[in-house]
Amino acid sequence: MLPFFLSPVSLYAIYVRRCFAGSGLSQQTLQLNNDQTTLHFWGPNPKLSNQTQNPEKPSLVLIHGFGPAAMWQWRNQVQFFSPHFNIYVPNLVFFGNSTTASPERTEVFQASSVAKMMEKVGVERFSVMGTSYGGFVAYHLARMWPERVEKVVIASSGVNMRRGDHEALLKRAKLEKIEDLMLPSTAAQLNKLLNLAMARRLDIIPDFFLSDIIQKLYSDKRKEKMELLKGLTLGREDTPNISPLPNKEVLIVWGEKDQIFPLEMATELKELLGPKTKLEVIKNTSHVPQVENPAQFNNIVKSYLCDS
User: Fold this and answer.
1) For 240, which DSSP code?
2) Residue closest to 184 by CA, chosen among 154, 229, 127
3) How many domains is the chain built from?
4) Is the full-model pTM beyond 0.85?
5) What are phi and psi for residue 306, nearest 5 degrees?
6) What does residue 165 show for φ and ψ, rounded to 5 degrees?
7) Which of 150, 217, 266, 272 is deepest in the core (most CB within 10 A)?
8) β-strands 86-90, 37-44: how paired?
9) Contact by Cβ (8 Å): 138, 110
């Protein structure tokens, strides 16, 4: 393991935290229910009352995908959207410092935890944006609390996945177990994940850097995260097991070259979620368009969220 002063990940983490703090956010922790579940999140700094108590400033929750903790996935969006929204960026249970003593491991439980967090911080209504696994959580939030969730953004998230989609992904990755892709433990596995998730080839990344990423961002709570993968309620059947959101405005944003959830899944998802659903495809990006082309991604989402 690289010492702190030689670790690219540790040094970059300082910069990312400063970006969040510079956007008016601070790290906070909430006990949700009888100390069983603890959720860590970035939210409006309570000391900056002009940000936390402006009734005209809407709230937006950003829900990360399966992988590193939230701050690593949403930096560009936090900086872009913070002037327009009160931003909340939770670490889902078993990511970052969020944890639980509950045996629950479903994405439905994750959605319930986020809903309780928002209730505890006193936010009655909010929009939500989730990427990949976070899109599953965002979907369940909108389905279970339609009166609280205003607009929904689902980014690169195969909410409509079938059992066969899971098998096809493993075949594309040339792996036997999903945890070898989503929870890489070797440089070779991480390189495979990155090349599926990004449109540009990343074969030139040195192994010492990949190993540093694994040690700092993927090694924590591995057992519990494997249980989360096994606990997914979506994708268990041969047909999509989701309900429409007929009265909810939904924006789907997808990378044209997504190899985790291929583009045809986005087209089908648009039809399944209801008549108020829009689809935007970003060219020359794969599974993380918010990272690969943040300017276009952010402008698409802002236009949608700010359209009265």
Assistant:
1) -
2) 229
3) 1
4) yes
5) -90, 0
6) -65, -40
7) 266
8) antiparallel
9) no
99 is in which domain, residue-wise? 4-306
Euclidean distance between CA atoms 306 and 220, whole angstroms: 37
223 contacts: CB under 8 Å, gap ≥ 6: none
Give me 40's structure tokens: 């860590």
- Can you point out the beta strands (E) in 22-147? 25-31, 37-44, 59-63, 86-90, 99-100, 126-131
Q: DSSP letter at 239? A: S
Tell how strand 37-44 and strand 25-31 pair up.
Answer: antiparallel
Residues 143-171: tens digit of each pLDDT: 999 999 999 999 999 999 999 998 999 99
CA dihedral 15, 18, 19, 23 (to 10 degrees): 180
- Residue 50 token pair: 């002009």
Q: What is the pLDDT of residues 203-239, one digit of tens each?
A: 678 888 899 999 999 999 999 999 999 999 998 888 9
Enclosing H/E stretch for 225: helix 222-230
Q: How far apart are CA 71 and CA 89, in angstroms?
A: 8
- Asked if residue 197 lies in contact with residue 257, where contact means CB atoms within 8 angstroms, the answer is no
Query: At 160, which helix (H) or strand (E)?
Result: none
Tokens 């979620």: give the residue.
273
CATH number of the CATH domain containing 216:
3.40.50.1820
What's at 256, amino acid-wise?
E
Is it the case that residue 35 has pLDDT exceeding 80? Answer: no
